Amino acid sequence: MDRIHITGGAPLNGVIPISGAKNAALPLMIASLMTGETLELINVPRLADITALLRILGNHGVDQMVVGKRPGQTSETGQTIRLTASNIIDTTAPYDLVSTMRASFWVIAPLLARFGEAKVSLPGGCAIGTRPVDLLIMALQQLGAETEIDGGYVIAKTKKGLRGGQVSFPKVTVGGTHVALMAAALAYGTSVIENAAREPEVVDLADCLNKMGARIKGAGTPRIEIEGVARLNGARHEVLPDRIETGTYAMAVAMTGGDVVLKDTRADLLHSALDVLATTGTEITQVDGGIRVRRNGGGIAAVDVTTDPFPGFPTDLQAQFMALMTLAKGQSHIRETIFENRFMHVQELARLGAKIRLDGDMAIVEGVERLRGAPVMATDLRASVSLVIAGLAAEGETQINRVYHLDRGFEGLEAKLGRCGAQIERVRA
Ligand code: EPZ
């Protein structure tokens, strides 16, 4: 298995281009199943999760074309993918494909809405908690689906098509909102989603569906109204910038010091995280087409954070923020309210010399003077990258094992950091 070697201590200076958002691209690609016409997606990141989903869509019979580079494009330009689901040959998503990535479970909604049946394996994904799908199934039932679980598969059927209904989520769920949106868009009649997730990725999906002919209002608020339509058409849509990648590199700069422009991204996608970073003493300014992040001298102030659904502080940046707080002056309290098991990075950060104590859903981080490089291993995507940024700030060599987690979510990580002065390289197994 590949490893990443980092020699820490160098500040980051330069420009980092931000890729399209993985967590927007995945549901957008799944939305291609909702029409027989072509959906063209621009700015799709080159990531293992995208490749895995292409395999799953291919298994259903979706034709795929990855458009080649055009003059003026660089390796950073996201890829354009054309997906055409005109000949669906199979409405089953099998265990061996779905078990690698939780988001692939979401294919259940378009398959059911368009073909009246779907059989989808219960999902896998990062080891960050139990991550059930009960609310996703509830949403489909509210829209008229009959469901059963048999042999590890969710089987969903509808006799006369889905019909509009009221979906009230007892808890904010991003996947549940994506599923409800896609199902309701092709249901007969009007649907309302209450306590909907407000994440930018939900808005991006709704925008794309509206381009495809859906009638969705209120995405980005807790109440979304959908007037179902009989069919959708093809469309062309650009994936929004990755706010988690943006926040990750911002935290890396806050931790190592330096001056970096994060380009092709938007501050409004991650205000809460940028506000917290500013409170730690990092200078954040909006520049044309991006965000400038600076910390030159001066210590890192300890700040408490609690993860929350958007617009709150994202759980997907919790591990990275904890890495930053390991070098803060004083004590910081980090509360994780979304996933119950998302502290797997704590023991690995401790290997670098961090002082962190866990108390239920709270991590209490005691800032230390310095971290020292060590071999570490990560168990999920965001935990892995928290070790990368800690390694960049640590003295000496850090070796990160199980790099495949990083390849699921960070496009060109070593190249992007390397060009800003980081000493980072991948050692191929
Ligand atoms: C999405 O996961 C993201 N994944 C996650 O990013 C992200 O951490 C999460 O939203 C929260 O922001 C993608 O977009 C592909 P949820 P999702 O449904 O949709 C509970 C990453 O690193 N819940 O919003 O699966 C659940 O257990 C990944 O890129 C139920 O109880 O998350 C959790 O506690 C990791 N029943 C909470 O809701 C359900 O049926 C929020 O989960 C569904 C969820």
Query: How many domains comprise the coordinates?
Result: 2
Fraction of helical residues: 25-40%
Tally of helical segments: 14
Give the CATH class of the largest domain.
Answer: Alpha Beta
The CATH superfamily name of the largest domain is Enolpyruvate transferase domain
Small molecules bound? ligand EPZ
Description:
The protein has 14 helices and 24 strands. The model has no long low-confidence stretch (mean pLDDT 95). The protein is α/β, with parallel strands linked by helices. The N and C termini lie close together (5 Å). Strand 8 and strand 9 form a beta hairpin. It has two domains: 200 residues, Enolpyruvate transferase domain (UDP-n-acetylglucosamine1-carboxyvinyl-transferase, Chain, Alpha-beta prism), CATH 3.65.10; 215 residues, Enolpyruvate transferase domain (UDP-n-acetylglucosamine1-carboxyvinyl-transferase, Chain, Alpha-beta prism). The protein has a four-stranded mixed β-sheet with strand order 22-23-1-24. The chain is 31% helix and 26% strand. The structure holds ligand EPZ.
Summarize it.
31% of the residues lie in helices and 26% in strands.
